[in-house]
Design goal:
The protein has 16 helices and twelve strands. It is α+β, with helices and mostly antiparallel strands.
């Protein structure tokens, strides 16, 4: 007991050693940094600015934001945007395949059927030249191609027969694709899907071939697009979709609004390619002549774009419908700038009926509404709107 007490340190020494160990573990507390002197309002003593004071400087106040509605200008009266606002209870801004009679009416467009007279009356002496035409090899080729239009009741056969027939007039199908972009504003909002697109001597399309059965299939696909393939609907859902499909059916199949949309898309494509060609010629002239004024291509021209369409009612069609229209650039400006109104004359789409059962009569009449060159005569066919006896009935 005595020996152990000799080697054991005193009690107060153990406490001092423990406090020293704790002090060695934690560093001594730092003294607070002196606060910078703040100058009194009445004092003239200037204190140097510290980095802390610079970092806490007040931020500049942002300008007051103007509400978005105040910056948007209302559409001009008569513009497409103004029409959409006025007819807000009707669904007008839809795909062209879902157009009804409201869209052509509000756009100022209508259809008119032309009852053509006799061939001799319209040609003005074509009976005298008929013997000369029959001797030509080109005329016989056209008669043979027109006779092939009465082939099997197959959609693919019809497309090939129409291509062969128009090929005799140097009208060729475009190889770039079978769709036409429909533009509204600065973007493409829909794709027009005719059976074929044709051009004559240039890359700009001017004619489309449409089968009315194709339009019916596209419209049915549009109504049932959100349905799964092979899915059977309940009776209420099926009834609603059938009712919607019936509401989209035109009163006359030959005056389907989708045909009008295809003609507008043709005119838009012609206008686009015309402006690109004009701009390219202006750039070339500026590069050669160094005239800056020539580089500015006119954005607003007063030209009209002639568009045509060949339509058949189905596979067993006996009549060929030929449509034509002249669409001015002012009318197309309403689609390019929907918020602005560009006054334009009403658009009339006229169409005539040509029999498929009589190939000779079809060959004699087809150059007139299309205004394609006749090789034997060396000039263009006569415009049925100015020559011959005809009767126009507007619907």
């Amino acid at each position: 007991m005595a020996a152990s007490s000799l080697h054991e340190p005193p009690k107060h020494d153990r406490q001092n050693s423990e406090s020293f160990a704790v002090a060695a573990t934690f560093p001594p507390p730092r003294s607070p940094a002196p606060k910078p002197d703040v100058a009194l309002p009445g004092s003239t003593h200037h204190q140097p600015e510290s980095p802390c004071s610079l970092s806490k400087a007040p931020k500049p106040r942002l300008p007051r934001l103007v509400p978005l509605r105040a910056t948007i200008q209302p559409p001009q009266p008569g513009s497409i945007q103004a029409i959409l606002r006025e007819q807000c209870r009707s669904r007008l801004y839809v795909s062209p395949i879902a157009w009804t009679s409201n869209q052509p009416r509000l756009l100022g467009c209508d259809f008119a059927i032309q009852m053509l007279g006799a061939t001799g009356e319209r040609h003005g002496g074509a009976e005298k030249e008929s013997t000369t035409q029959q001797r030509t090899e080109k005329y016989q080729e056209r008669i043979f191609a027109a006779a092939n239009l009465q082939g099997p009741a197959i959609a693919s056969w019809w497309k090939g027969a129409v291509e062969d027939f128009l090929g005799t007039y140097n009208i060729r199908p475009l190889r770039s694709g079978s769709t036409l972009p429909f533009r509204f504003g600065d973007r493409v909002v829909a794709k027009i899907k005719p059976d074929a697109i044709f051009s004559a001597g240039s890359t700009a399309p001017f004619l489309v071939y449409i089968n009315l059965e194709t339009i019916a299939a596209l419209r049915e696909k549009h109504v049932y697009s959100r349905s799964r393939v092979g899915r059977r609907h309940s009776f209420p859902v099926a009834t609603l979709k059938q009712k919607k499909l019936r509401s989209l059916q035109p009163r006359l199949k030959t005056e389907d609004p989708y045909i009008l949309a295809a003609l507008i898309a043709l005119a838009q494509e012609q206008q686009l390619q015309s402006r690109q060609a004009t701009h390219g010629r202006a750039v070339d002239a500026q590069a050669q002549l160094s005239r800056p004024s020539e580089t500015e291509a006119p954005l607003h021209d007063t030209t009209s774009f002639k568009v045509h369409a060949l339509v058949v009612s189905g596979a067993n069609a006996q009549v060929l419908y030929v449509y034509k229209a002249s669409i001015p650039s002012e009318f197309l400006e309403n689609f390019q700038k929907p918020s602005q109104f560009s006054p334009s004359c009403p658009i009339r789409v006229s169409y005539c009926l040509l029999p498929l059962t009589r190939p000779e009569e079809l060959v004699d009449q087809i150059p007139l509404p299309l205004k394609v060159p006749i090789d034997e005569q060396g000039d263009e066919g006569e415009d049925p709107s100015t020559g011959g006896r005809e009767h126009v009935v507007a619907h």
